[in-house]
Design goal:
single chain; about 220 residues; mainly alpha; Fumarate Reductase Cytochrome B subunit; about 60% helix
Length: about 220
């Protein structure tokens, strides 16, 4: 189209560069309503189970469990259903973190992307910068580890409910308690990093728990 002085301007097409490592590029996929609902429901159930378990008195064999224990058991079964729904949703959803990025351990290429992302994030820290809060290869793999730990915790809890007594039940319960401690450590570390990013100006919490971001509110 002509410029202000009447001369024809030259159209310069947009240059597009191809990143040599596309699998390690951090992205900020939109969170669907289904993802937000499942994430929030699972978080609420896990917090209830972890906190409530500190006040439980497990019945001896043959003794009727009290109300708190019964609620704990059935919330655990509901948690198992929610986790299975989340796995299923991760397989079929589009435009969000894929299942392959959540569980990269069997793919050399995706593992290389995780290693590259760890290196890049460490470089940011060493330069005094805040690590990227996007869903890069490392962040996705960490989320996957949390989901795997939660799944194992739900499976052992369900197995203990079904077995209901005997040596096998004691073994399963010991493993369930161990996984609960691992989940405590994961939640504390995960929440601390998310809160740090939020304090430093990121919209990481907004993208998961509500729609209005800081930029929208101005």
């Amino acid at each position: 189209m002509p410029s202000d002085n009447g001369a024809a301007s030259t159209f310069v097409p947009e240059r597009r560069f191809r990143n040599p490592h596309p699998s390690s590029v951090p992205t900020k996929p939109a969170r669907s309503i289904a993802t937000r609902l499942l994430h929030g429901s699972i978080l609420a159930a896990v917090l209830y189970q972890l906190i409530g378990s500190q006040f439980l008195s497990r019945p001896i064999p043959g003794e009727t469990p009290d109300l708190a224990m019964i609620v704990h058991q059935y919330v655990g079964l509901a948690s198992m259903a929610l986790v299975m729904l989340f796995w299923l949703w991760s397989m079929i959803r589009r435009g969000e973190t894929s299942l392959r990025r959540l569980v990269p351990w069997l793919s050399p290429a995706r593992m290389q992307a995780v290693v590259r992302d760890i290196r890049d994030q460490a470089g940011l820290i060493l330069r005094g910068k805040v690590p990227d809060d996007a869903d890069g290869a490392m962040a996705s793999a960490i989320h996957g580890l949390g989901l795997l730990t939660l799944t194992a915790m739900a499976v052992t809890g369900t197995a203990y409910f079904i077995i209901d007594g005997g040596a096998s039940a004691r073994t399963v319960l010991s493993l369930h308690r161990l996984l609960s401690n691992v989940m405590w450590a994961y939640l504390i570390g995960h929440a601390a990093m998310a809160l740090l990013h939020h304090i430093l100006g990121s919209d990481i919490l907004s993208r998961m728990f509500w729609y209005r971001t800081r930029s929208d509110s101005h």
